[in-house]
Amino acid sequence: MKMQTEKCDFGMIGLGTMGRNLVYNMCDHGYKIAGFDKDAAKVDSLGNEADGRKVSAAHTLEDFIRSLKTPKVIMLLVPAGKAVDSVIDELKPYLLKDDLLIDCGNSHFTDTDRRIATLAKDDMQFMGVGISGGESGARNGPSIMPGGNEKAYELVKPLFEAIAAKVNGAPCVTWLGPGSAGHYVKMVHNGIEYALMQLLAEAYHMLKECLQLNNDQLHKIFSYWNEGRLKSYLVEISASVFLQEDDLTGKRLLDMILDSSKQNGTGQWTSQNAMELHVPVPNIDIACSMRDISGFKKQRVDSEFILNWHKVDFREKDGELIDWVENAVYFSMIISYAQGMALLNGASEKYGYGLKPESIAGIWRGGCIIRAALLDDILKAYSQDASLVNLMLSKDIAMKLQNCQDSMRLAVKTGIETGIPLPVMMSSLSYFDSFRRGWLPANLIQAQRDYFGAHTYERTDRAGSFHTQWKQENSL
Ligand code: 6PG
Predict the structure, then answer these.
(1) Is 264 near ligand 1, meaning CB less than 6 Å away?
(2) Domain at 441-470: CATH architecture
C-alpha cells in the first residue's frame, strides 16, 4: 500500500529571514508548513535547518500546491509592490474557490483593497496582515495585525494566536476590521515607529553634545530610562547599540556608522495618507523629513561653514538636563502615539474599518517595534472611553502631559539655545500648544486668502461665506 504523506496545514511563499522564521515559529506550535521560494538556495536552507520540524520545502510551485490541505491557506512574505502581484498571478491558476491568500508584507493598503476586489471575482479570499517585530519577532512572537474578511480570518485565528507574542497570556493579535484594515494599522504603526526613532535620536544628540557624554554613559542613561516610564523596545535596543563594538576597528560601532538614514517608505505613506484625510501627524511628517535631510550629507557638511553660527555651549547648572530630556521624550512619545491613534480614528471613519483603538493598543503591547509600557496607559484610556477623539483628552494622559510640560519646554529651549535640532520634540510641543488653544491665528490666513484670491471667509458672528473688497496698499 502506498504511504499517504501528511498534507501541510499552511503554506509560506517567500523564505527570506522573516518568512523562514515565521515558518519555524509555526512549526514549533505543532503546524506542518510548506515553504516555497524562487531562490532554490532559500528552499534548501529551509529544509536543511528544519531540525526535525514538520516542514515541506518545495522547489516548484506545483509541489508546493500539492502539499497543501484544502482549502489552501497561503501566506506571502515577498517585497511589497509588483512582487506581490506577480506571485498572485502565478498562483491564481492553482487556486480554487474559498482558498485564502494572506499578504504578510508591508503592502500599501490601497494595493490590498485592489487585490481583495480582484480575487473576490473568482470567490477567492485575500487578507492583508501586518506583522511587526523584525526577525526575532517573527521567530519568537510578533504582533500581528490582520484585516479582511472576518469569516476567512477564522481559518488562521488559532495559528496566529499560537505564534503571536503574548502579554499577560493574551496573544498580540486580533481581527482589526474589513478590507485593508490590517495593512492600514501596520502602516500607522510604522509611522509612529519613525517618530519614536527620530525622537530617541534627538535625545542622543542633546545628551551627547550638551553634556559631552560618551557611549558608556549614554548606555547607562538609556538603560535607566528603560526601567521607568520610557520602558520600550526602541529605548532598550538603543541602550544596547551604545555598547556594540565594531569588528573592523574595535571602536564603538555607532561612531563608525554614517549619519544618513534610509527608509522603505511606510512612514512616508502614513504622512501622505494623513494629509489626504486632513488628520495632522506632524511628528511623523518631520521624522520622514529628517531622514531625507540626513541623506543630504555633502550639502550638510558644506553648509557647516556657510551657515556658521557662533557656538553656544550648554552650561549645566544643577544637573537637570538628563531629567528634562527624559520628560521631553515621554511627552513626545505620548504625542506621537496620540497622532497615530487620531489618524486611525480618521481612517476608520473614512474607510469604514470600524477600528477599536483599545484592541490596537492591546496588540501593540508585545512583539512589535513600538511596544512600550505607555501602551498599557493608552489601552486604559481607550477602555475608559472608546470614543476619545484625541488621546491627549483622556484625563490620565492629560495629567501625564501636564506633569512633564515644564521640563519639556526647558529641554526644547536648550535645543534652541545650543542650535541642536529637535524637530520631533518641538513638533510635539507645537501640536500640544495648538490643540489646547481655543483661538488660533487662522483668521489671518482666511483674510489673506480672500485678499489675494477672493476665496471667501467665514465670520465669528454669523453663518455663511463672505468676501470683502480689501483696501489695496501696494507698497511693494
Ligand atoms: C516592523 C518594522 C518593519 C519595517 C522595517 C523597515 O514592524 O517590524 O516596522 O516592518 O519595514 O523596520 O522600515 P524602514 O525601512 O521604512 O525604516
Answers:
(1) yes
(2) Up-down Bundle (1.20)
